[in-house]
Amino acid sequence: MTRLAMQQAPTPATPRRFLLSASLWGMAAGLLLALDGDAALASRWGGATLALVHALALGVLGNAMFGSLLQFLPVAAGARVRGGRGAALLLHALLNIGALLLVLALRRPALLSPHWGGLLLLAAFVLLAALVLPGLVRAAGQPLLRWGIGCAMVGGLVTALLGLSLALAIAGAWRLPLLALTDAHAGWGVLGWVLALLVAVARVVMPMFQGVAAVPARLQAAWQLALYALLLIALALRGTSAAALRVGAGLLVLAVALVGLLLQLRAPKLRRAPLTYFWMAGFAALAAAACALLAGGDANLLLAGVLALAIGLPLLVGGMQLEISAFLGWIDLQRRCGRGVRLPGVQLLLPARDKAAVLALHGLAAMALLAATAHPALARGAGSALLLAHAAGFAALCGVDRRRSRFIRGLKEQG
After folding, report:
1. pTM over 0.85
2. How far apart are CA 203 and CA 221, in angstroms?
3. What's the CATH fold of domain 9-333+347-399?
């Protein structure tokens, strides 16, 4: 099992800023769906739909993954993150201002061109790569983990480049095949960046936090090679074999989901903790998304998007978001209080009941989203449920800070 180098962790405020922003963006996504109603689920090409997709992909998943990387790399991968507080603040600003500008431009194209948000988002991914890739290259050990994270970082850069190209094409600056470019952008973003990073990190965090066996190295390496071969072929063919590429993507996603569920079901000492159930539900949603993708058709593609972007992937990153936030609170206490002080355990800073409540609300939101996909008239209610689920997650994260501050006040009163 990977040993954690807690002394190498960054200042807790650095990743916490991103994790809190992810929950705020989840609330914003719920608000968008509640305001736009069935228009957000009518077509993958609608402005309301595109705004909602990018609020989830960039706001929720982007912030959660940026923040988690800044914490995970030095602690679990032994890779030093360059820069400091100033670089992290700039990274946070580029990601969130860029995401905000892009979401506004997609929802109200007459007010703003999307290329401004695209430029800032590309700058965010370039800066993230500059901060983490040198440390990944120089770190010792765990080659598969470092290779997986590095490839995912490249996938994020390609996604941002394709996104900016799309934005410039929409603005009329370039003439490009929009349909093929959009599919390539979505594939690199969801598969080459988000899912690839989750798969790389899962090989460490699932055995550590859930008590399951690690995925065999050869199996994971083969999956990564197949994934990036598929994505490169998709770029080269420019949409001429869309059906075959869709099937390939569906099979790769299905493999991840089924292997993840199988590892959990076969674990002799599976930890019956909220994080485990977050990941079980997330893998189940990804498996369903893969089946919808394999089935094809516009309605099934929309269903696959809802299952993956609004339900499955947020459950996977949301469960880790809660765990990381509790660790950040404990690290902050350790650094503030020094040696000789008995600190509250990580589980006391974020109790299991709070995590279970967040999971339950995400489950209700998932059912509401699926109902709204079948009956778009229910979309406003689904948006409200999504907003409530992420608001509960935000409250749980704030609870860590509240309990940490209470403990410090108690020490001062005793002294």
Report:
1. yes
2. 11
3. Cytochrome C Oxidase; Chain A (1.20.210)
